[in-house]
Amino acid sequence: MMKHIFKQGEQGKPVFLLLHGTGGNERDLLPLAEMLDPSYSVLSVKGEVDENGMARYFRRLREGEYDLEDLKFRSQELYDFIEKSAKEYEFNLENLILVGFSNGANMAINLALRDEAPFKKALLFAPLYPLDLKDNHKDLTNFEVFLSMGEQDPIVTLEQSKRVIEIFKERGAKVHETWVNSHEITQEAVIKARNIL
């Protein structure tokens, strides 16, 4: 069982899936969920990979280079866990909103691109997804995504941020983008993210 926190919100309201950044834990993004909408339920999951004492959702070979085998394995594991949680906590997978920061945002992109994933919305902060997706034909025409990216992000280049926008646009998603300074979650970005809820 993955380490997680579930917080029941108002009946029938959506559920935030919170995915933290490298070195974070399942408590990190709880204040973000409160700011976005305190009436929603929350499923916050801790990454199972240990990188020098820092929790992550999947292994990487080096900065910006993913261990693809591990990503595939961890993504399946997380997706299975989300499905089990939906049964256990009685929520509909279609009502789940992916909310991720940095490594968590990257994992959220992977989840959104899964063929079987029924998700309709994602709020992603400082995402990076430098993978070859020519074999991925996921139709995202019913998908809405908010992307907060850093103009001076020391980890994600402008080109890499634009690539994330492309990934969603190529598949027909409705994309809302906002630019902040660095690799961060700003209050201003959170207020903009709230608008698409």
TrEMBL record:
UniProt-listed Pfam families: Abhydrolase_2
MF (Gene Ontology): hydrolase activity
Coiled-coil spans in chain: none
Residue intervals of the Phospholipase/carboxylesterase/thioesterase domain: 68-195
Name of this chain's protein: Phospholipase/carboxylesterase family protein
